[in-house]
Amino acid sequence: MSITDLPVLEQAPVPAPEAAGPPAATPAPLVIQATSGWRAIDLAELWRFRELLYFLTYRDISIRYKQTALGAAWAILQPVLTMLIFSLFFGVLGGLNKRLGGDYPYALYVFCGLLPWQLFAFALTESSRSVANSRNLITKVYFPRLLIPLAPLLSGLVDFAIAGGVFALLMLWFGQAPGWPILLLPIFTLMALVTAFAFGIWLSALNALYRDVQYTITFLVQVWMFLTPIAYPTTIVPEHWRWVYSLNPMVGVVEGFRWALLGTPAPGVTLAVSTTATIVLLVGGLFFFRRMERTFADVV
To answer: Binning pLDDT at 50, 70 and 90, where does residue 9 land?
Structure first.
């Protein structure tokens, strides 16, 4: 057989390459850029991150009672011991038992003032330190920064509820019964929280910039307690100075609690002045916090 007798293998035609289409579009990168001026509070965004708020609140509660011998009993011991000390020094030695008047004992009067005060003091202290204590969270992910000083307000309600139960037992012990103003108690509780939030966002932003602010918070709360009518009635303040005294927002809150639970005279003008002061501080605090939060990740 010769070479010419071999079958010829025909090569299959190679299809021509198709024309390449246009390249796929690359998605534009997400850029988070600082803005200038006032930025409004995005309530819809806060609602979307509500689960983070629940987590932050649960974290604060669990850390506070973790590795403690007495646990939640501290929520009972603190107001009870403070009530006993005030009753001894202000009530007995200071003679306020005689000057108080009314149909309720001085110890119950003091404990009623301690209810909103301890809620306010705890929320203010923890809220003021919250931004500086959340450095690892702030520098890693984006979320509404207002959630950080807001979480301590909710966690403080646990101690408030426990102390409220103790106060209810004291009212039964002394034979006291609240009147219809007790229906307004949730409003006064909200006022205490809003007041703590208003001051907390001011101090939390300042504490992120100047760390020595945290050393003044404890002293501020101690002085503030004696400027609030917890151990004494507002009637000992001269009448022509009471409107100035009522610029302390907690004056209206404490007087509102006593009106709702003990039936003392309605706060009236005192409550109006304190509420106005709280609103002004809240609006100013929100403006300052929103203006400074763009720098938190750099300075915290």
So the answer is: very low
Q: Is the alpha carbon torsion for 101, 105, 110, 112 positive or negative?
A: negative
Give yes or no for residue 22 having a pLDDT over 90. no
- Assigned token pair, 11: 């090569």
CA distances from 27 to 31, 35, 115, 116 (A): 12, 23, 55, 53
Backbone φ, ψ for residue 69 (5° rounding): -75, -35
Q: Which residue has the higher pLDDT, 46 or 247?
A: 247
DSSP secondary structure string for all residues of 218-276: HHHHHHHHHTSTTSS-GGGS-GGGHHHHTTSHHHHHHHHHHHHHH-PPP-THHHHHHHH
For Cα atoms 255, 96, 118, give the angle at the middle one, nearest 5 degrees.
40
> Which pLDDT does position 252 carry in this prediction?
94
Residue 77 has pLDDT above 80, yes or no: yes
How many degrees, rounded to 5, is the angle at CA 118 between CA 127 and CA 158?
Answer: 75
Query: How far, in Å, CA of 149 to CA of 133, rounded?
Result: 11
Amino acid letter at 164? G
Q: Which amino acid is at 223?
A: V
Are 243 and 269 in contact by the 8 Å Cβ rule? The answer is yes
